[in-house]
Amino acid sequence: MTSNGNLVEVRNLKKYFPVGEGLLGVGRETVKAVDDVSFTIKRGETFGLVGESGCGKSTTGRCILRLIEPTAGEVIFDGRDIASLSRKELRAMRRDMQIIFQDPYSSLNPRMKVEEIIAEPLAIHKVGNRGERRDRVMELLKLVGLDSSHASRYPHEFSGGQRQRIGIARALALSPKFIVCDEPVSALDVSVQAQVVNLLQDLQEQLGLTYLFISHGLSVVEHISTRVGIMYLGKLVEVASSREIFHNPLHPYTRALLSAIPVPDPDAKRERVPLSDELPTAIAPPSGCRFRTRCPIAEKRCAEEEPQLVEVSPGHFVACMVVAPGAQKE
Amino acid sequence: MDNILEVKNLTTQFFTRAGAIRAVDDVSFTIPRGQTLALVGESGSGKSVTSLSIMRLVPPPGRITSGEIVFNGSDLMKLNPEAMRRLRGREIAMIFQDPMTSLNPVYTVGDQIAEAVELHEALTRKQAWARAVEMMERVKIPDAARRAKDYPYQLSGGMRQRVMIAMALSCNPKLLIADEPTTALDVTIQAEILELLRSLKDDFDLSMLLITHDLGVVAETADRVAVMYAGRIVEESPAREIFYNPRHPYTEGLLRSVPRLTEEGLKQRRLETIEGTVPSLLDLPAGCKFAPRCSYVIRECTEAEPALLSVNEQHRARCIRWESVGDESAKTHPERSGSVNSIAPSPISDEQQASL
């Protein structure tokens, strides 16, 4: 139990993936999918992780659950470093940490009935007997707004939104403390998105859950998150309260991202921050600041030094030497 | 000729083993020359089948069963397959959501654009290649002469979509059908592609049919909007009107369920929702198809399907209670939208159960 109220602490997390074979294994390149990322998630809050495809947000989520092994760094969950856990200890800890996936079609086994899907985590962890598990499944179905009559059906009989509810029920089966929501509403229709977002918020309130909410949909993230981290090419470039990020964005990438969201209001003022060029790859990221090749305010020194995250006001961190002079390394 | 496209009473059915599905049911709309019409709807609303019908590319077991598609003064339904083939690409071009699957992975992008040009115009290989490079420059692909020799996998998603647009516009079409052109792209790239489409529309004197589920994209791009639900147009109006004066409860619900970047201090605790799910086309409710999810529903709604009623000269809504939409006190089932107290339950509806 940590005293500072953090459920999750991510410290200098790195995940490098090797790509290609190279010549005789020489000169093999690596993708630095997550490169030295640190942040904390407080108990009961929702931490939103935002970024465009390939920025490393999903990899970060999976490293936290140790669904993929981090290359370096620490993840402290509930006071324990999960990297140091044995398989057995890790399995026990997994009861407390669950994940909801983006695609409710591919994340449910089509040959299993809903009851079996939701009861599977209970069976794996040997919780209760058959009757108790059944009761728990019914309770969970009700909790996520489904009917007990749905237990004996197969996933294909449900709509996308209902499947996502099944996925949520499965994640809740073991009464976890922490859930990684990896793009949970991105594949759903707008009217159904709202239902699922509301459900996640209600469950958080009722069950005291902590979420890591990964998404590229900024308006959903603003709505659901307490604090938000913006990622770009494997790096966190800005972390602040949701309110700060959306009303006082400092990093030029955050600003560009916010200005790019299409607003459903024809009269809305649009001051788009144009981004030059397209996303460089994480195999050969630019030197210094990784955003500099697309940055409208880049200076010469941005190519020479890598900016660090510095606290510019209480709780607001930004990694940009131009807007936050302290971001230079000493 | 004021209208580049007039779709009149289009019905497209799919004849499946489970029964005949009306994916598009008596849909009519027009696109005035030089304008952009956005066709908005959720999955299964019939918006993509409408666009495929216009191109006469509905895959079997689907078939256009009635209606007229008048393009530039002539009815496409009366053209023979050969004439239709000549028209596709040259007169009406189309771009799709996923540029990776629309491009051939084993040819360079320059070759693919050149091939499209050669198909419709009598040019030498060299001239066609030069045109391909020129088109890539016009869609603002940097270093076009070199990138033309790239294969699709060497380009990013945004660049690939630019290539698709270059290909679509290479024969100077009059109408561009864009089916979810930015849905697969990141938000910053989406903004660039939308901007590009807007500027090309003027350069090429294009009219556009934009198919999208994203109301934000509509607000930034469209002149007119048609909202589809269960194969029907439920509301049609100038783009501004849809956002400020929606007259169909479904449109109102859609607009309210989008989380918005809020003004400071106005953050809402819950999102408004539309109860339930889109009905199965195999078993639609009698009367208004939206009635089971509607918060304004009255008995008459379930008795007969409402016609598209005129709100004003420019604005039509398929709702007998359109005058009451927006008035909280006129709601007969206020719990169907908003749903503040309970976890929005969404059990499978009786209609759907019957169809399972």
Could you give the topology of this structure?
The complex is a heterodimer of chains A (330) and B (356).
Chain A: E1 6-19, E2 29-42, E3 46-50, H1 57-64, E4 72-77, E5 80-81, H2 87-94, E6 97-100, H3 114-124, H4 130-143, H5 160-172, E7 178-182, H6 190-207, E8 210-215, H7 218-224, E9 227-232, E10 235-241, H8 242-247, H9 252-260, E11 310-313, E12 316-318
Parallel strand pairs in A: 3-8, 3-9, 6-7, 7-8
Antiparallel strand pairs in A: 1-2, 1-4, 4-5, 9-10, 10-12, 11-12
Helix pairs in contact in A: 3-4, 3-5, 4-5, 5-6
Chain B: E1 3-16, E2 19-32, E3 36-40, H1 47-54, E4 62-71, E5 74-75, H2 81-90, E6 92-95, H3 99-102, H4 109-120, H5 125-138, H6 144-147, H7 157-169, E7 175-179, H8 187-203, E8 207-212, H9 215-221, E9 224-229, E10 232-238, H10 239-244, H11 249-257, E11 309-312, E12 315-317, H12 350-355
Parallel strand pairs in B: 3-8, 3-9, 6-7, 7-8
Antiparallel strand pairs in B: 1-2, 1-4, 4-5, 9-10, 10-12, 11-12
Helix pairs in contact in B: 4-5, 4-7, 5-7, 7-8
